């Protein structure tokens, strides 16, 4: 079905340099932290961020520029609210129209958060994110597995692949997935890891109740354990989950009863109603590169990191 969709499409060449950050699987692979990294790295190029706005009602017919004073997650989705404080951010179901709107508004470079499988846009640069822990799952397409498309053609389109995880997980992924080893031999593989950003609250031995509605909630729970938190309860929800008041009130009661701190991801926190945010600690993360030569080559026009 994806091949037929692509055959019938006429991809637009973006009016400004465009970097697409995508993945081959359903679920989190580090796209949003990668776009945040690029927005900081390319700050001198006037970057704008473009994404679909999953879960939001705006951007379905015409591109919408995110307004933090007026928009919430129900309007533009959670990822848009993470990008908007640091770069002009657009939500658009029609990515080509979104690119034109960003260019007209003065973007020097557009960073597409997802859209790797979109056949209507031909970005100048393509970066593929791979979670070292998940890899490509069982190697089968949705719904039999996690893949949005087959591994070989997906990898072939990438200018660089960013393998995300600690050194042990990355080594295991390279052994399990020979295709990644081939990419490494070609000099197209960069190595990175997600690192919690200091929040001012020590978590070592702190009783914690955690919840997350992201692509792979277990990654977040493992991060808390790595930080030394005493994880009393971990509750996973579907990606982009909208939390009803009753669920939040129940979790707050549970945390108080257990004498635990209620903790979630930064992505989940922006989906919480304002009246609940003071009850929950958000733990933001950033992408840190251990080996970025492949990324530097892929983004050569923009200069070194």
Your description of this structure?
With 305 residues, the protein is an alpha/beta fold. It contains 13 helices and 13 strands. It has helices spanning 2-7, 31-41, 73-76, 78-83, 95-104, 151-156, 167-176, 178-185, 217-226, 245-258, 266-269, 274-277, 293-298; strands spanning 18-23, 47-51, 64-65, 89-91, 109-113, 125-131, 160-164, 189-196, 207-212, 230-236, 261-265, 281-283, 285-291. The strands form 2 sheets. The protein has a 9-stranded mixed beta sheet, with helices on both faces. A 4-stranded parallel beta sheet has the order 10-9-11-12. α7 (167-176) crosses α8 (178-185). The longest helix has 14 residues, at 245-258. The model has no long low-confidence stretch (mean pLDDT 92).
Structural class: alpha/beta
| H/E element order | HEHEEHHEHEEHEHHEEHEHEHHEEH
Q: Termini, distance in Å?
A: 38 Å
Largest sheet: 9 strands, mixed
| Cα-atom radius of gyration | 19 Å
